[in-house]
Model the fold of this input.
Amino acid sequence: MKKRLLISLSALLLSACADKNQYEEAVLAEMQKEQDIKDYKIDPAHITDCVVDLTTKKMPGLFAFDPNRMTAYRNYAEMLTLTQAKNDQEFKSKRNKLIQDFGSPKALADARLNYSESIGNCLTAVIGQSEEEELEKEKAKQQTAEKSPEPAETLVTTEAPVEKPAATSSPAETPATTEAPVEAAKTPAEAPATTETPAEVPATTKTPAEATAPAEAPEQG
Done:
């Protein structure tokens, strides 16, 4: 008995998932055609999830695996293929079948209204969210631009090159360094002091005068 119950539940789950997946694929195909989604560069899959969730809230059935809910998924998916009719005859035949599936023309009209309103609400919400994100990005850029006065700081850093002329004053001080050659030039002026030693040479030359003294010795004899 338990095995039969598990088998029936698993079959129910598989069929419910298959019906919902079929409806999601139909919605995704329609969202890929929406011009607003293309203009705002919105992900069609994101809008699809929103539309499926909103439309499901107004579908028949009390819970996800309710047979009425699964039938609604199939009917909604078939309703979206109504625009794919190639001619009026095919459109009328599909429409009549949908009226039978939904139970009445009013039920079909209500389902179509539910789907259209869900698309409008999802687009409004997603577009508004994307616009808010863009505004937040722009505000963040403005705040970063205001908080970073980097150009002013670069001017302060550029003052260092302005101080370089003070460093170039060293060439002006080079005349002080050139005083050393001036002092070196004075040493030739002092050279006569060193040449005074040749002036004393005549004192040493008096020895030849004394050499003439032995010449006076013969006069005494």
Notes: The radius of gyration is 56 Å. The mean pLDDT is 74. Residues 41-137 form one domain. The CA atoms of residues 117 and 144 lie 40 Å apart.
